[in-house]
């Protein structure tokens, strides 16, 4: 049955990957993806702490980059503790769960990303996310560990399985896959490079992130991405054809 | 402020008591009670795993029996995984959270009991409970540990307080004015005209409408419109500056 993917971005301890798998399976989630796990993969520390959720561990898929891990997804949530002041909508675990049920019933493929234990995700990781998922927490003490964050998301997804959701996807025909979106981003960045858009190497990363956030948040359909690639191609010509 | 007591009945590992304290404080709960902790109290293993929630550990009260631990409470929930077939109402974490808020606002004093790690509570322990609190879980794999059960209860209690923040729009500063939006549309159309993007006068109107819809529906902020005008300007150059 279709379900959200759980993506651990650069997880540090194998034990925590095992605990996250256990947290997932308690609430029926099995699509575990790992981006560049610090200690490699497979990790012998993961199995014991998975406590019977070994199948989730054994079927985990490993990727080098966030872009690859989300390539087949159409709506990505980035779990953060602190407010990142990013230009993206913010949702609680419950709101996200309701949205994800609606998205899945419309054929979309949602995923939830979780950052490394100590540092959380970088702003570059988050640039590909559609929505910031934040757990409302004691403002004087926020100390959720990785498996706890995973279990709250998985719990809400399971609890809200039969609720009637209110969230309406923007494109009844479906959002573009992240693969298509990254294709547009890279096409545009290449064209801008050739035209000298990026003023300096120092500002390049920030300009690139601004553009990626902007394109990401626009929630383009697959057809719209094709249109925009035609636009970039035409504009990038030296002269009219 | 009045809040539910969290009662750990015969907890085994000090580490799990620390993790439960951490789970509680994440969601603002501080009234921790221990009934006959197996390894005595204080327990040096509890502090490190509490990760900054030491005050909850230090203020924990210890009792010999469940009866003493719940003596000042008026409504007790017993957390169980399996159905105990007890003649008591059964509630989910969310239903319990809503009830507890109502009870507290009426001056009642609720508590939630959790059993030992391996065995759970005995039927005698549960006899003093008003309500069975059960977490709906994957029927093929239920493996919640003590701290996870505590965090789900504490989480629901916090989420269902009336002051929990909700959904935020992507652009708190507001969407771009239509004036700005049309400026971008006209700028892009002019640049595309120069590059020969519009194949024929016949198709021009439809292509233009597609682009305008796409830009309109992306819900750009004013700042994003400025960024995109810079992008169009750079791409439309004949050569790098």
Produce a short descriptive summary.
Chain A is of the alpha/beta class and 241 residues long.
Explain this structure to me?
The structure is a homodimer of 241-residue chains. Chain A has 241 residues and is α/β, with parallel strands linked by helices. Chain A has 2 domains: 5-159, Alpha/beta knot (3-Layer(aba) Sandwich), CATH 3.40.1280; 178-236, no CATH class. The first copy, chain A, is 44% helix and 11% strand. Chain A has 10 helices and 7 strands. A 7-stranded parallel beta sheet of chain A has the order 3-2-1-6-4-7-5. In chain A, helix 5 (93-105) packs across helix 7. The longest helix of chain A has 17 residues, at 178-194. The model of chain A is unreliable at 163-169 (pLDDT under 50).
The share of residues in extended strands of chain A comes to: 5-15%
Strand order of the largest sheet of chain A: 3-2-1-6-4-7-5
- CATH names the topology of the largest domain in chain A as Alpha/beta knot
State the assembly state of the protein chains: homodimer
Strands of chain A, total number: 7
| Corresponding CATH architecture of the largest domain in chain A | 3-Layer(aba) Sandwich
What structural class results from the helix and strand content of chain A?
A: alpha/beta
Fourth-tier CATH superfamily name of the largest domain in chain A: SPOUT methyltransferase, trefoil knot domain
Number of domains of chain A: 2
Query: What are the low-pLDDT stretches of chain A, counting only 5+ consecutive residues below 50?
Result: 163-169
């Amino acid at each position: 049955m279709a379900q959200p993917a759980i993506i651990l971005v650069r997880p540090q301890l194998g034990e925590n990957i095992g605990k996250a798998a256990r947290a997932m399976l308690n609430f029926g989630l099995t699509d575990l993806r790992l981006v560049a796990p610090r200690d490699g993969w497979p990790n012998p520390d993961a199995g014991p702490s998975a406590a019977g959720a070994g199948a989730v561990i054994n079927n985990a898929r490993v990727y080098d980059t966030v872009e690859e891990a989300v390539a087949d997804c159409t709506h990505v949530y980035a779990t953060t503790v602190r407010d990142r002041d990013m230009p993206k909508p913010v949702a609680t675990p419950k709101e996200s769960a309701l949205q994800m049920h609606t998205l899945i019933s419309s054929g979309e493929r949602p995923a939830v990303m979780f950052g490394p234990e100590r540092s959380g995700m970088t702003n570059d990781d988050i640039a590909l996310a559609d929505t910031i998922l934040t757990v409302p927490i004691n403002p004087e003490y926020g100390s959720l560990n990785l498996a706890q964050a995973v279990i709250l998301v998985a719990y809400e997804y399971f609890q809200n399985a039969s609720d009637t959701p209110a969230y309406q996807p923007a494109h009844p025909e479906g959002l573009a896959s992240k693969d298509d979106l990254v294709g547009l981003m890279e096409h545009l960045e290449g064209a801008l490079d050739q035209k000298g858009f990026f003023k300096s190497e120092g500002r390049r990363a920030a300009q690139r992130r601004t553009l990626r956030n902007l394109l990401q948040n626009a929630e383009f359909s697959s057809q719209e991405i094709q249109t925009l690639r035609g636009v970039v191609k035409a504009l990038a010509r030296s002269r009219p054809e």
